[in-house]
Amino acid sequence: xxxxxxxxxxxxxxxxxxxxxxxxxxxxxxxxxxxxxxxxxxxxxxxxxxxxxxxxxxxxxxxxxxxxxxxxxxxxxxxxxxxxxxxxxxxxxxxxxxxxxxxxxxxxxxxxxxxxxxxxxxxxxxxxxxxxxxxxxxxxxxxxxxxxxxxxxxxxxxxxxxxxxxxxxxxxxxxxxxxxxxxxxxxxxxxxxxxxxxxxxxxxxxxxxxxxxxxxxxxxxxxxxxxxxxxxxxxxxxxxxxxxxxxxxxxxxxxxxxxxxxxxxxxxxxxxxxxxxxxxxxxxxxxxxxxxxxxxxxxxxxxxxxxxxxxxxxxxxxxxxxxxxxxxxxxxxxxxxxxxxxxxxxxxxxxxxxxxxxxxxxxxxxxxxxxxxxxxxxxxxxxxxxxxxxxxxxxxxxxxxxxxxxxxxxxxxxxxxxxxxxxxxxxxxxxxxxxxxxxxxxxxxxxxxxxxxxxxxxxxxxxxxxxxxxxxxxxxxxxxxxxxxxxxxxxxxxxxxxxxxxxxxxxxxxxxxxxxxxxxxxxxxxxxxxxxxxxxxxxxxxxxxxxxxxxxxxxxxxxxxxxxxxxxxxxxxxxxxxxxxxxxxxxxxxxxxxxxxxxxxxxxxxxxxxxxxxxxxxxxxxxxxxxxxxxxxxxxxxxxxxxxxxxxxxxxxxxxxxxxxxxxxxxxxxxxxxxxxxxxxxxxxxxxxxxxxxxxxxxxxxxxxxxxxxxxxxxxxxxxxxxxxxxxxxxx
Length: 732
Prior knowledge:
This protein is an alpha/beta fold. An eight-stranded mixed sheet has the order 12-11-10-13-14-15-16-17, with helices on both faces.
């Protein structure tokens, strides 16, 4: 037996330690060859009388197994949807592939010998499923270890028996959050739920597992015993029926039926618990196969896993530029964005100079950074010592001379060109020659802001999202004169603070702010058409957006788009006021409704910022609000207007890589994740059909829906964005 992914060590007691160590990878993943080797090991253990038991552990210091090799899975799904196979052949190939994994794990748990898992690090997805097929599980006593089934987060369902073994182990109710939401648990929580049998020091894991094999081995899984009963009861028991009735209702309420993975997971559990384990595994395999043939699943895997992984590893980093390491960063402005940037930088081990106009403001920014740590300490995720260490890296001051050692300076002051120009000049007067200067502006063109700089080649945009400590995306903007070294520094810095960078070219609003604005803008257009505001809000959530369009406007602040509109008009040299600007002027300046910030916007809020109700005066201003509009058409309008603006960004060269478009949209403003992003949305519909929809909407609702030249050309040639703008490989 030749093993490539595992190392075999049999001791004098006949106990085999199987160490999982996939070559060429920093983390173990379930490749096709690894699955085949598990089956070989199971056969060897079952057929060799000298073998008394098996312990599976990992040779990787950072984890047991991170799950399935989704790159193999995605390429397999793409091939399954290609022209080389018939539909029937594609379905059969996918189903047989899933069943091979099931057969391998069933061989393991029915081999007749006790099998233990010594879990030394995170075990996610297929990694956890392998351990669930073991008769005994012991995990290292480390609160940072995660055990979970996160497949639902990327449009999948657990395909290695997770929907069958976990509910049989802990009950459907306890398993639901892990299966439907992908929520992981730490070792102590796993012990309390009886997912694992023991928690032990990392150095003792294998010894503890061997002790169990020697002293109290039980080589039969609970579900393979004649007296087995599902904890909490099956689907038709009093407790079980309530779980599935309420679970189905909650699922529809939360997902609006947009996510097939969650529907299929619930079906797998419901149907599977009514039959023996082998039949349940076939049920899971059928649903998994069906799911993998759907575009939602393929798109989510590509965007939320593969593309995010590529971008996080520097796929958009310029070739030829040496690696850089930002050790000191200057942050200009200690407001909401400024202290957030200072916090995430300090948390990554970077020294921070936090500057504001007065010492009081600078200190307040540092104090706000401290509050983030206070909340983490309350939740047991930090300590006073870690807080002190982090805050020790933040120097709050008014002295620009403190920037002399900064490798990168990030401006995060008020969205006013004159104010930004002033701080740029002050900073550059003391910065070292090879330092990079960045603006955190969300809308103002970088090329225009760089006019205040004496070295525009080192001037770049680094756009964070609020709240900075929780949002995972950073939009890097290349000005007309920005050099490749500045881009390399920006990408390396974003990687160091553990966020995902996308790279776009300069324009007003760049990519995210520009396209994001079309969503609330379309919502206000619908209200102007007389569609009831409550209907507009509900439809926004139904189409997959995290908030209603009017609630989004309130969260941004109604005065912000008004300021942007006026600055845009000023920059373009026009005196013509747009209808939207007039509309916002009335709400903001005449009625004093700024949004959530002053508890009055399209909604009313309480003194803690909790949304109470839609603005009564707005609702009462009309007696004939429309409530019979076509729901599907409203949903299509919301998604189409955002995707169309994304296509315009490609035509104008703002976007050049579809990964930036899809990842940026989902992480940046919450574009319906089940679509895979706006580019995947268009590609799935097809350029020709999307153009036809745009033309129809343009006739009904106005020129804003008119398809651009690029889309027309792609429709004529039957092209896709991922084909026409094929992503390039990451820099070496």
